[in-house]
Amino acid sequence: MILELATIDIKAKQGAEFEAALVKAQEVLVTAKGYVKHEFKKCIEQENRYILLITWETLEDHTVGFRESDLFQRWRIIIGPYFDKAPVVVHYTAV
């Protein structure tokens, strides 16, 4: 299992709209091959920052299977307009 950690900074004062869009975006995400589970978290200290934690079966399920699919395009159409800058995405594995 691989954990994807995405740090997402959104445009100022768009939190409510972004969170509403997340509901629709999650419907797309959960259909991806290799998807296991996810969580969204909102930063307490920085109101426009969120993190997304997604567990994938393999790294390639995210980096190839999802990122190179039509699902990813749909995902970005839904939440991409709220991004202040490109998300920072890193992957982790258990030790």
Notes on the protein architecture:
The chain contains three helices and four strands; from the N terminus they run E-H-E-E-H-H-E. The protein has 95 residues and is an alpha+beta fold. Strands 2-3-1-4 form a four-stranded antiparallel sheet. Strand 2 and strand 3 form a beta hairpin. Helix 1 runs antiparallel to helix 3. The chain is globular and about 35 Å long.
Spell out the blueprint of helices and strands.
Layout: E1 2-9, H1 15-29, E2 35-42, E3 49-56, H2 59-66, H3 70-79, E4 88-93
Antiparallel strand pairs: 1-3, 1-4, 2-3
Helix pairs in contact: 1-3
Short description:
This protein has 95 residues and is of the alpha+beta class. The protein contains three helices and four strands.
* Helix content percent band: 25-40%
Q: Give the CA-based shape.
A: globular
Radius of gyration computed on alpha carbons: 13 Å
Counted beta strands:
4
Largest sheet: 4 strands, antiparallel
Name the features:
single chain, globular, alpha+beta, 95 residues, four-stranded antiparallel sheet, 4 strands, 35% helix
